[in-house]
Amino acid sequence: MPEYKQFPLADTAEGLTEADIIAWQVKPGDTVTVNQIVVEVETAKAAVELPIPWAGVITELLVEPGQTVEVGAPILTIDVDPGGKAAPAPAPAAAAPAAEEPAEEEMKPLVGYGSKAVVTQRRARKGAAPAAPVAAPVAVAPAPAAPVASVAPSKPKGGYVPLAKPPVRKLAKDLGVDLHALTGTAEGGVITRDDVQAAANGSAAPAVVSNADSGYDPATRERRVPIKGVRKATAAAMVQSAYTAPHVTEFLTIDVTPMMEFRERLKKSREFAGVKVTPLTFAAKAVCLAAKRTPDVNAVWDEAAQEIVYKDYVHLGIAAATPRGLVVPKVRDADSMSLKELAIALTELTDVAREGKTTPAAMLGGTITITNVGVFGVDTGTPIINPGESAILCLGAIKDTPWVVDGEIKVRKVLQLSLSFDHRVVDGQQGSEFLADVGALLADPAVAITY
């Protein structure tokens, strides 16, 4: 007899309450295995692919792509006993027990499903009498593996998400057809295989996205987009930080010509062959060294406990602009890394962030952050501290600037730094000393050997 379970939206990271369904990887009738990826969702922190903790046959998808779902709400139904297979007879005592699939209590679903009991019920198929519910709920236990973040899809145009089933989406991808450019001919505007094939053959009409879908109002000439996902989480975090931590920002302008010359020498060295060394790499190393001399900037104010917590490690956050908004993944134990190791770690971190593959876990637990507005040609800024931290360093653009050297005006490579810090934890003296140390290390990397 069929046994139906409902798969709930997982809590993929601490504090998440909802997620947007991006795309289904399965359809009704598909057979799935334990921990097979079934759906891609976007949370407030990243795009994540969710695995299912059971094997069976998908019977119903309960949520359309583009919809926002609360954590714990069911998103699909699965028959975990297709065909009503009878339980195998017990094996003789002398023989090892055999089974086609592991017992349910032995299955190891991935992290994110928590220890909450998931109500298991027998769901009636269409046209059939409803089945009786299963007596006991199934508790899904967490396992050590982490969810895998996915490649971010193209940003929906005007907030519009085209409606199409997973096989149709795959067909469109294989044929190079943009679903946003199509008008679905099925009921409710759903795009069909025929619509995709027609577009691939050049015979489909362009899509007309309704004002209701796009959020655009011709009367006011304004477009309204719902606040959700990364943008919503970032806004909440910045407001919380701005209103709870008394910010102080200090500025420092330095000549980094020696650093840039040293960078060129490293690029030609055999040890750094193929390694991307950027000004951010030097800044990351400088922050780690300077934090050892001024540990206050790497501490945090614990309001609940009424304590200042000093961290004996540096989990360095790197603010990265992505198509989904600002994310701040961390380099764990950055203070224990060499310059080369930092360069490699930063390259991997920023590449993963830009591709939308950063996992929610990679953005938790930072101790201090660097934001680099210089990549946009901006001189400096007054950054807002990330919640749970006490300082953030901002790097401006490195520009050729007239500079006085030994009494003469010369053109030098000049960089502006700004440091925002929480004045509850970091006094003006400590903040100034830290910023001066970072500046000294960037102005002359040889100073590092004196630390």
UniProtKB/TrEMBL annotation:
Chain intervals with Low complexity compositional bias: 86-100
Region Disordered, annotated ranges: 86-107
PROSITE patterns attached to this UniProt entry: BIOTINYL_LIPOYL, LIPOYL, PSBD
Keyword Acyltransferase included in the entry's annotation: yes
Domain spans labelled Lipoyl-binding: 1-79
Molecular function via GO: acetyltransferase activity; lipoic acid binding
SUPFAM superfamilies recorded: CoA-dependent acyltransferases (SSF52777), Peripheral subunit-binding domain of 2-oxo acid dehydrogenase complex (SSF47005), Single hybrid motif (SSF51230)
Family annotation (Pfam families): 2-oxoacid_dh, Biotin_lipoyl, E3_binding
Record's keyword terms, sorted: Acyltransferase, Lipoyl, Pyruvate, Transferase
Co-factor requirement: (R)-lipoate
EC number: 2.3.1.-
InterPro entries in the record: 2-oxoA_DH_lipoyl-BS (IPR003016), 2-oxoacid_DH_actylTfrase (IPR001078), 2-oxoacid_DH_E2_comp (IPR050743), Biotin_lipoyl (IPR000089), CAT-like_dom_sf (IPR023213), E3-bd_dom_sf (IPR036625), PSBD (IPR004167), Single_hybrid_motif (IPR011053)
Peripheral subunit-binding (PSBD) domain span: 163-200
Gene Ontology cellular component annotations, sorted alphabetically: cytoplasm
Similarity comment text for this entry: Belongs to the 2-oxoacid dehydrogenase family.
This protein's name: Dihydrolipoamide acetyltransferase component of pyruvate dehydrogenase complex
Native organism: Amycolatopsis decaplanina DSM 44594
Lineage summary: Bacteria, Bacillati, Actinomycetota, Actinomycetes, Pseudonocardiales
